[in-house]
Amino acid sequence: MKQKSLTGFMNEVIEDLCQQERFATAHIYTYALRAFTEFIGGGEIFFGGLNKSSLRRFQRHLEDLLRSYNTISTYIRALRAVYNRAVDRELIPGEFRLFSGLKTGVTSERKLAVTASQMNRLLTPPTPCTELPEEVCQAQDSLKLMLLLQGMPYTDLAHLHKKDIQGDLLTCRRCKTGTELCVKVVPEAMRLINLYRNQDSSSPYLLNFLSGTLKGEAAFNEYGRKLRNLNFQLTRLSELCGVGDIKVSSYTARHTWATLAKYCHVPEEMISEGLGHSSLEVTRTYLKSFDGDELAKANRMIINYIYSGKKKLWSRA
């Protein structure tokens, strides 16, 4: 039987990921294969072309192109995942420590959080004589809502379902990890939820950010367009609010919430729970110590810090 090539096998994996509707991972694998193919010089690549020498030269090639550490790491990890899958299927024998010494970690290369005063300027409308454009205003509301909901990621916010909210309690599962996330909705957040509440009875989504009519890759692409536009409008927002020297994106609310919580001495375990980072088992353990009221208290303390500029240290009293 003819041995599968790396190119052929990786395309099979990408197709399989698409069938599982794991489009984000499929896109990463596609870009990684494209980058490695261009580095090799085009054409079909066989597994023999994936060796320690070629991988190290590929990494140096990406560095010469000034690709970020995380981009290089993402591409190499994609190649490693496909290589390991081929080994598991006994398509190739595998080489010991083939990927050792390469960039496969993740690093924070730029500041993602802003200070309390900077966030205050982003969330507080400019002077009365300056009115924000409608799309910028909507992006500002999204930023505010993500912050008010304990640094909720935009993907989780956009994909909230109508059934996820009962009264002032929001319970959902994170899109990325499936971890359960519980948030007590503060009045400021509820006003924004009501402002953007989806009125289409046929849509499952709580907010009107996504149509709710698309499936599969079309839905993934719709979300990607919304996210790119949000980030573009947030850049405009930072400029209009006089903080254009800082990078503002969909990540800003999440990292700012966590950073300010730590700055106010909120226990790291509670921050982890608030962000939905914990496994379900760990979350249940923490819930014995940190009930919903305490987490809501921490969230309110962070919100007050942003709007008043007065820091108050966490106390369980």
From TrEMBL:
Sequence similarity: Belongs to the 'phage' integrase family.
InterPro entries associated with the record: CB (IPR044068), DNA_brk_join_enz (IPR011010), Integrase-like_cat_sf (IPR013762), Integrase_catalytic (IPR002104), Integrase_recombinase_N (IPR010998), SAM-like_dom (IPR025269), Tyrosine_recombinase_XerCD (IPR050090)
Entry's Gene Ontology BP terms: DNA integration; DNA recombination
Domain Core-binding (CB): 4-87
GO terms for MF: DNA binding
Keywords (A to Z) from UniProt: DNA integration, DNA recombination, DNA-binding
Pfam families, alphabetized: Phage_int_SAM_5 (PF13102)
The protein's name in its UniProt record: Recombinase
Residues annotated as domain Tyr recombinase: 109-300
Cleaved signal peptide residues: none
Domain of life: Bacteria
